[in-house]
């Protein structure tokens, strides 16, 4: 199965280090988990998704990474992620609408509390049309700024659209 361009680009933007601790929000079938695990040695990725069915597929795809201790997958919604638990160097989501369709202050506060000092949040999108990329990036960056993050944005053209990455670092870290 070919890796979707948006996922390959997203993992490239993450610049995964061998000892990174990552959280993926909305992991779907676990393709990005597989790509991240290829770069990990002592690091680990935790991936969550609301759907038990897609987590089951992601677990099958990543069975070797789970057995090696590089990946853990859970059926869980972001809002159910307990505060005060494991902290992450990088937290990311691909095409998760939450961050641009409504204020996500509660979720951003939860994410902020789970990031290590200096850790970053990466939100990736592939809008249906390239001309939507700038507006989408602006909306997401504003939401992150309102949530206390310093932001940066990068984009890449594709044959059909564009890819957008909005990065957030807790202000002051």
From TrEMBL:
MF-aspect GO terms: methyltransferase activity
Keywords from the named record: Methyltransferase, Transferase
Keyword set includes Disulfide bond: no
CDD domains in UniProt: AdoMet_MTases
Pfam families: Methyltransf_25 (PF13649)
GO biological process, one term: methylation
InterPro entries in alphabetical order: Methyltransf_25, SAM-dependent_MTases_sf
Domain Methyltransferase: 23-119
Name by which UniProt lists this protein: Class I SAM-dependent methyltransferase
The organism of origin for this protein: Actinomadura rubrisoli
């Amino acid at each position: 199965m070919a890796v979707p361009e948006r996922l390959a680009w997203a993992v490239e933007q993450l610049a995964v280090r061998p000892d990174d601790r990552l959280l993926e929000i909305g992991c779907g079938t676990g393709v990005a988990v597989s790509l991240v695990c290829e770069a990990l040695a002592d690091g680990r990725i935790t991936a969550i998704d609301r759907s038990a069915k897609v987590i089951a597929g992601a677990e099958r795809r990543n069975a070797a990474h789970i057995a090696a201790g590089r990946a853990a997958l859970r059926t869980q919604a972001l809002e159910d992620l307990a505060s005060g638990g494991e902290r992450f160097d990088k937290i990311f989501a691909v095409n998760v609408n939450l961050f641009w369709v409504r204020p996500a202050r509660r979720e951003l506060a939860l994410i902020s509390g789970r990031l290590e000092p200096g850790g970053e949040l990466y939100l990736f999108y592939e809008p249906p049309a390239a001309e939507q990329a700038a507006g989408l990036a602006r909306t997401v960056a504003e939401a992150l700024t309102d949530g206390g993050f310093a932001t940066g944005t990068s984009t890449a053209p594709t044959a059909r659209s564009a890819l957008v990455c909005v990065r957030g670092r807790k202000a002051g870290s």
